[in-house]
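Figure 6 in text form: structure in, sequence out.
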């Protein structure tokens, strides 16, 4: 599979940069992080918190895609966007791992330990900060 395959299947399309959308996505991501940071990661919350942090990361990737001239409709396509368009091989592998964990939680009823959730959430927060600084610093947020 390649990024172009997602374009051909209509799961990615070329789009104009939407500065308002980008700013809104970044602001909402920051608000969500602030809110979720106030919650304790424990056995009953680990799964939902991990899933929500993943969603924040995905929305940041949506902002980056918009800034790059794409609208992406597939979570899996973000992996190829990171790898092939942004040349972020390590981040693309991590994102795909997080996507699969989130899917197993949301769609297959899998659980995640508190320790694993903490490690993944910390990694997701570092990725979010890195991606915003690297790709979205010019959006006055």
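Output sequence:
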């Amino acid at each position: 599979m390649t990024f172009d395959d997602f374009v051909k299947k209509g799961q990615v399309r070329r789009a104009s940069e939407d500065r308002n959308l980008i700013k809104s996505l970044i602001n909402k991501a920051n608000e969500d992080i602030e809110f979720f940071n106030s919650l304790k990661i424990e056995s009953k919350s680990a799964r939902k918190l991990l899933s929500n942090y993943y969603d924040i990361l995905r929305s940041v990737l949506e902002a980056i895609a918009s800034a790059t001239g794409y609208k992406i409709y597939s979570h899996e396509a973000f992996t190829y966007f990171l790898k092939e368009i942004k040349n972020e091989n390590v981040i693309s592998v991590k994102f795909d791992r997080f996507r699969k964990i989130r899917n197993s939680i949301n769609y297959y009823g899998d659980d995640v330990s508190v320790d694993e959730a903490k490690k993944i959430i910390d990694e997701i927060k570092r990725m979010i900060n890195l991606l915003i600084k690297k790709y979205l610093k010019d959006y006055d947020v």
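Caption detail: DSSP finds six helices and two strands in the chain.
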